[in-house]
Amino acid sequence: MASRLSSFPTAVMGFGNPVRRDDGVGVYVIEQLRPHLADVPEVSLFDMGTSAFEVLFKLKGMQRILIVDAVVGTGEAPGTLYRVPAAEIERAVVDDPLVFLHGLKWDQALSYARKILGDAYPEDISVYLIAVEDTRLEVGMNAPVQAAGDRVVHLILEDLGYPSPHPVDPPQPSDAPA
Predict the structure, then answer these.
(1) Distance between CA 106 and CA 164 in Å, rounded?
(2) pTM summary value
(3) In the predicted structure, residue 16 carries a pLDDT above the cut 80
């Protein structure tokens, strides 16, 4: 078993809209992690829904952040899993001084949080993106996306040093989605 990396403050944040089919996979991952990590004080689980602006405030005091979200338009099959360093995503964000904060996306929020928090910004940030294509207004996920969400649950548990209920294959190396 891996060492328990959760001995320092860690936030796991799931984004998405569960009434938009596969887009809810980030929230699904948080729901699946709760029974495994509920009694671990160093790990905070956040169902962020679509509220990315809250990222700015929830990062303070954390040393490690794990983010889970859906991604559309990758050209890959639904359920394709990407693990992308946050720095790579931050580089893609354009700093727009006219951005409306209530319309902030989580990738923009990370970029702004780095500027606002300065030295208190956590350096250990990983982003799990799951390819989706069905974002119709309907509850429930397609099987490949839910399976990818389950893989992320197990990967996060293993990454934090907690036994995973079922072994999983690690995500296949993929380039970050365009």
Answers:
(1) 28
(2) 0.81
(3) yes
